[in-house]
Amino acid sequence: MDLIDEDLLHYAEEHTTPESALLHKINRETHLHVLRPRMLSGHQQGRLLSMFSKMLQPRQILEVGTYTGYSALCLAEGMQPGGKLHTIDINEELEERVRGYFAEAGLTDSIKYYIGNALEIIPSLEVTFDLVFIDADKINYAAYYDLVIDKVRPGGILIADNVLWSGKVLEKYRKKLDEDTKAVMDFNSKIQDDARVENILLPVRDGLLVVRKI
Questions:
Q1: pLDDT of 35 over the 90 cut
Q2: Which ranges of 57-132 does DSSP label H, i.e. alpha helix?
Q3: For the whole prediction, is pTM greater than 0.90?
Q4: How would you class 201 by CB atoms within 10 Å of its CB: exposed for 0-12, middle for 13-18, buried for 19 or more?
Q5: pLDDT at 32
Q6: What structural domains does the chain harbor?
């Protein structure tokens, strides 16, 4: 489901700061060579992630779900000098490509790239995070949140992607309530009911839930 008229989307992108040459390259190569390119954050969402990062100026960032590295590089744009971005992905087949992009960005020393199960890796990270981005398997969204929320500093921001799930969070846009849709809906309700945070759901692309730890 397209959540916004295509012409309006193009207009919005035309009035959004362009992506860098490297991000444009990653965007293009992901669509040419990688399965499920819609998983890429893309131009408009990428600029929004960059904007959040630049406003927050994080020292420590966690990303759950690296894919081809586009969103990681956007998040890194606002990171303080000497900061570290930790990004986790289970797909080892993309590792060489992603490490190449990180090297091209000159961020090899600033990005810690983990290949493996985030449910096992997150508990091992003895880090207090300023900014967290969750964009991985929807079934485990609530579990990732539970593992990381105590590692986020007060005033820190957590952003979750795909929280409108192609509109299927509404009954009129789905044929059946599948596992992924239920997981997204349960996650959204969980955040809404969590007194430790304040939150806003933005209908950008496939939905971004922005959560601030109180």
A1: yes
A2: 70-76, 95-104, 118-121
A3: yes
A4: middle
A5: 97
A6: 6-213 (3.40.50.150)
